Each structure stands twice: as C-alpha cells, then as structure tokens.
Amino acid sequence: MSKFYVTTPIYYVNDVPHVGHAYTTLAADVIARYYRLQLGKNNVFFLTGTDEHGQKVAQAAEENKQTPKEYADSVAPRFKEAWKSLKIYYDYFIRTTEKRHEAVASQLLQKIRDNGYIVEGVYKGWYCVGCEKFLTKTELVNGRCPLHINKEPVYQEERNYFLKLKELSKVILEKIKSGEYEIHPISKKNEILSRLELGVEDISISREGVSWGIPVPWDKNQTIYVWVEALMNYYSATQFLDGKKRFWPADLHIVGKDILWFHSVIWQALLIAADLPLPKHIFAHGFFTIDGQKMSKSLGNVISPKELIVRYGVDGTRYLLLSAVKFGSDGDIEYSKFDEKYNADLANGLGNLIARTAKMAESVNLPGRELKDISLNIGVAIQLVKSDVKEFTRALDLIWKKISKADKFINENKVWALERNLKISALEKLTDDILQIAADLKPFLPETAEKIERQFKGPEIKSENPLFPRL
Ligand code: MSP
C-alpha cells in the first residue's frame, strides 16, 4: 500500500471540544502516526475539521448574538487548540465554510443530479435540530427525539430535492455483504445490514427554510442539507489541496456509533451516484458515559481534554483515554478509576521501570544503545493498530506486559546487587527492552517515547525527572 488516508468526523461548532471528540481524534492520530512510521510522512493524509453550516449552528450563533460565520470563526480555533494540546498532528483542518469546500460540494451535487439521482418532492415530517435530521416514526419516542429529549422536534413540510436512496441502497447492500466495503465492529455492520434489508426511502438532500448553508447549484432558493455537504468534506479536501488527489478514496473513516448510518449508507450513496470510488473501511467506536451518565451540557458533567491534561499530562491523558475501553465498545469514565490507572500503569509501571533502570545505568556509566534490529524500530505491538479491529487496548496491554516482564527481571535477578560485569550485561539487556518499549509506544505516547529514546540512546544514560509524577 503506497498511501493511507484517515479521517475523523468534522465536529459541530455549536459545542466546544470534549473527551468524546478527543477520543475519536486521538484514535485517528494513533493510526496516522503508525502509518507515517510504516509508509513515510508524505504518504499519509489525516483530515479533521469542523462542520459549520445548518440550523443548529445558526441557532447557537443567534443565542450568542453573532452571525453564524463570526460564531464559527470563534469556535473552530478551540478545536485546533485542543488537538494541539493533545499532540494530535493532523495534516489538514477543514472548515465547511471554506469557499473551496463549498465549490467542490456544489459541483458534486450537480454531478449527482446530472447522473439522474435527484428528484423533486415534498417532505413532511418531524425534524430534530439537535441531530440535524428528519426523524422517522420509529425513531420518535413519545413524540420526542431520544437523543434530544429537551428539544421539541419541529414539524416541517417543504419542497425539497430527494436522493434516490431506495435505488442506490441495493448497490450498497451488495458492497457491504461482499466485503468490498468494510464496516467494523461486525456487530455494527450487522445492524446496518438489517436496516438496509428492511428497505429505505429516498431522502431529502436540500432545505428550503435554512439559509445558513451552501446554495443548491440549480435552485438558489434551497441550500444543501448540512449532512450531505458535511460528508463531502472527506472528498473535497483531497480535491482542493495541492497534491492530495491521489489520497481519494479514504482508507478509513473513524466515527462514533451515533453517525454510522450517515457514513456507511448516505455517504456511499452520494459517491455511487457521483461515480466516485468508495472509501474502503469505516470503524464505529462506542460512546463514553461519565460516572454512568450520558455526557451533556445540561447535566454539567462534560469533561474537557484540558481538564485531563492538567491532571494527567498529555501522554497520561492519551494513555487513559485510549486504554479506557476496548475500541468499538461503550464505556464509562470516572476520575477515581483514571487516578488509579494512572498511578498503577504510568507512575509505578512505566515511570518506575525507566527511573530505576536509568539510576542503575548511571551508577555504572553505561553508554546509551541503539536497537540492533532496525525493523523493531516501528514497534511490534502496534501492528495490532493496523488490524481491521484496531486493537488499541490489546496493543497497550502487550506493551505493558513487556514493562512488567522487565520489572520482574530486575527483581528476580536483584540487578542492583549484582557484581559490576553481570550488572552491566543485565542493564544492557534492560536498555534494549526499554528501547523496544519506546518504539512500541511511539504512536500512542509520542512525547514519552521520545524522552525515553533520548535518555537511553546515549551518549550516556542519566537519571532524570520522573516521567509520570505520582498523583
Ligand atoms: N458534525 C457531525 C459529523 C459530520 S461528519 C461528516 C457531528 N458532529 S459532533 O460534533 O456531534 O461529533 C460527533 C462525534 O463526536 C461522534 O461521532 C463521536 O465521534 C464523538 N463523540 C461525541 N460524544 C461522544 C461520547 N460521549 N463518547 C465518544 N465519542 C463521542 O456529529
């Protein structure tokens, strides 16, 4: 494989970054870092950004007494800052209000129409502004959107343009069944398949009453439905950025399970209708709850990445989020559990191994070392990141097994009490193990991996401040 293209959802600017957004973006960062080590920097493209049109953003702007654009301009940088503070290195941050995105989205929709996949019709139904979508009868619970109980859905009847999803869905069903288009985890793939097998209706892809959006190219009284042009960001960035055309189709879309339908069905339908190659793989991860409760502004339990960084440091936060739950499953996060895990795995586990080994190495003036086998420099455990199931937690488990093994080696051989020559060879072995651990850690804890390499690659190994001070 000569290139790898990974994306995150583009986040609505009506909210500021929280751990949920951070989790998705962090996962993409680990994957991008892994592929950069494998394929070289220039062959990887990692895209993230913000979703800035639609009713929800327009309403939030109005409440803030700003124009939607001013409002988006003030919130988008908060996402950039959050990713920077977590050492997330994306290649491009797209904003859907960029003129060049608007241009590509509009051309794409025109092409879909020219290909005969758009028809006119009237939409009647309930719209949830929180989800930015029309809800079907089966989705409504007691007349409300189950995800936005506090917001009443709005009844709407408008003249819209529709995408022939019913017809397109047959092709999608086949592509998912044949494995040409992969969805993970398998449980989520099966949910999509059963929904497709039940049959789907054509969907509205434009809005008459929403002015904050990209105009429908052939009808200036309508704007493109926000989800449709938002999905198009994945394609548009590859088209308007220099030298990025070769990255289409995407190799992997990472999304939360809440938006899998949009990504695995609607997005595929739009691409098929536009005659474009389809993304290869989509991974839907689970949702975090906080102390057993849904994370929400109204409950006041939203955790920001900043809060975590203050408490656990950058790599501490990366480790705790990535190891919190098996990638793909839901899970609960709790500060007390994070504290415990931080002390056990980072302060005591990794931190202590590095500190005690460096101290002993310093006492015998041990010179730094290089990993002999170059291929090990990319790390063995992280091969699991490459697997279809993106086994972050298993990879981290394997690395932590190596850490315990090295610790056990020190204790069982009482390395500190060995006579000088035996001590030196024991420490050489430990140094090699540690360098291997650092190589494995690179995509997950980049700063820590770098610090460890600097310390153990030489010229002389010296004792340094603890990597993870105990809480
Ligand atoms: N703008 C759309 C996406 C368009 S992509 C073409 C959107 N934005 S969002 O701001 O609501 O972000 C949703 C994403 O944030 C989820 O898919 C998920 O990746 C992440 N999460 C939001 N809350 C989360 C949790 N509580 N737990 C884990 N991830 C969560 O939807």
In short:
By secondary structure, the protein is an alpha/beta fold. The chain contains 15 helices and 16 strands.
Give a verbal description of the structure.
- The two termini are 44 Å apart.
- The strands form four sheets. The chain has a six-stranded parallel beta sheet with strand order 3-2-1-12-13-7, sandwiched between helices. A four-stranded antiparallel beta sheet has the order 5-4-6-8. Strands 9-11-10 form a three-stranded antiparallel beta sheet.
- The model has no long low-confidence stretch (mean pLDDT 94).
- Helix 11 runs antiparallel to helix 14 and helix 14 runs antiparallel to helix 15.
- By secondary structure, the protein is of the alpha/beta class.
- The protein folds into two domains: 4-285, 3-Layer(aba) Sandwich (Rossmann fold), CATH 3.40.50.620; 334-456, Isoleucyl-tRNA Synthetase, Domain 1 (Orthogonal Bundle).
- 43% of the residues are buried.
- The protein contains 15 helices and 16 strands.
- Bound molecules: 5'-O-[(L-methionyl)-sulphamoyl]adenosine.
- 5'-O-[(L-methionyl)-sulphamoyl]adenosine (MSP) is lined by residues 9-12, 15, 20-21, 23-24, 51, 230-231, 233, 255-256, 258-259, 287-288, 295.
Annotation field: number of helices: 15
- Average pLDDT works out at 94
Query: Span from first to last CA?
Result: 44 Å
Helix content: 40-55%
Secondary-structure arrangement, i.e. CATH architecture of the largest domain = 3-Layer(aba) Sandwich
Cα-atom radius of gyration: 25 Å
